[in-house]
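Case study: Two component transcriptional regulator, winged helix family.
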Amino acid sequence: MRLLLVEDDAMIGEAVLQVLRAEHYAVDWVRDGVMADAALRSEQYDLVLLDLGLPKRDGLDVLRALRARRASVPVLVATARDAVGDRIAGLDAGADDYVVKPYDIDELLARIRALLRRSAGRGEPVFEHKGVSLNPATREATVHGQPVSLSAREWAVLEPLLARPGAVLSRAQLEEKLFSWKDDVSSNAVEVYIHGVRKKLGNDFIQTVRGLGYVVPKE
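Here is what the predicted structure looks like once written out:
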């Protein structure tokens, strides 16, 4: 799961970033409304954790612009604006949930999980190919009906490939699924997780296309 954290407070942002990564989410962190809008226009996220009191562009404006594009990504507003009118404004602008600072981190994680479950229930597909099945809603993987355990990052490289059999994805495209912006990415990270998937699903399930990337063959 890839999340966008929009938070201008450095201490809060760093703390939340570490907690989310410890929960195996890939997280991009931006610190103002302009960067948030740019990220939401160029990237795909499973959830947005959005502060409202942002420099350069207010969080409500970012949220309204997102919903004007008919984007359905879940948005959890996390802000110090605690007046009833502020909550109503946030929800009316398109927020799916609203939590007031200072919030309990366990409650924040629970709200994130609830929104992700709800989002997955909107008809998210189960990916099936050659006896391998991935269910994003339940995070269950099976091979010919038998459960198989995948790490969060093994799942991250397998899901986009299994979603589009026959499509070649470059290493850079798969790295985006593994790591957040500004993370240091080792030169062989993708290869390591592809190797882990192959050990569990078979050496030929994901094939290397020399000079281009990786593919799950259609046939």
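For the exam, be able to explain this: The helical segments are 10-22, 33-42, 59-68, 84-93, 105-120, 152-163, 171-178, 189-201.
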